[in-house]
Amino acid sequence: MQHRQDDYTTVSLKEERAPIWYNAVLLLISVTAGVIAFLPLALHTSPWDAVTFRVPENQGNWWHFLIGAPFFLAFPMIWLRLRSLFSRKLSTPPGRRLISTMVALSICGTVLVEVPFLLRLGNLARMNEWRRLSIVCPTFGIVVASGAVLFLKRHNILPTRACLVGLNAAYLANAALCLIVYGPMPGTARSKSGWIVTIVIVWPMLLELVWLFIQTFKTQESQDNSRADQYAAFPRS
User: Fold this and answer.
1) Ranges in the chain, pLDDT < 50
2) Cβ neighbours of residue 230 closer than 8 Å, sequence gap 6 or more
3) CA–CA separation, 228 and 237 (whole Å)
4) pLDDT tens, residue by residue, 143-165
5) Are 24 and 86 in contact (CB under 8 A)?
6) 0.70 cut: is pTM over it?
């Protein structure tokens, strides 16, 4: 029976490593996401400007910091993509713990950013209801759906895959907020080049998130089948 468990563990690790072309494409997307951290989303202001409080007219505050910080999740994404291409181990326990902490902090920050929209604080009290829902629903939809999958499948999901789900979910939740909030703002292509590039890369990232969900359910099915095979081979007396 131990031999069967070892064989299954080997198969699971192989399943966790995606094809080379897949990881290469996603590495390119992750690098692009890293570049976005230094490109302007609106009014010539980049996520880096937001986290360093260099917002026009000295308006930098905690809200801008929290909305800019999740864009730097691209760098742990790059780390995982590089390991998937060049390292035998897809991730390390310390790296996964650090990523989990970063994802949790990012999601908490994004939720805090949404609070003014939820409570209609300040000038938002006059915001159109459809506009408000279009800002709140995508972000919370991504967070809730991803959190539910991670919680329900916590015993079955492979560790690196869990990190990728968290990173993609946290990044997309904040990116969706930024795209909707900053989209109507006036400006040239140069003044909002980060916004333009972001709207291009969120779609493959969203597709990967869905693919990770599907693979997680497939992994559970494989585990269930393996347990059934083990029980058939070694039935209880």
Assistant:
1) 1-15, 228-229, 232, 237
2) 1, 4, 5
3) 16
4) 999 999 999 988 888 899 999 99
5) no
6) yes
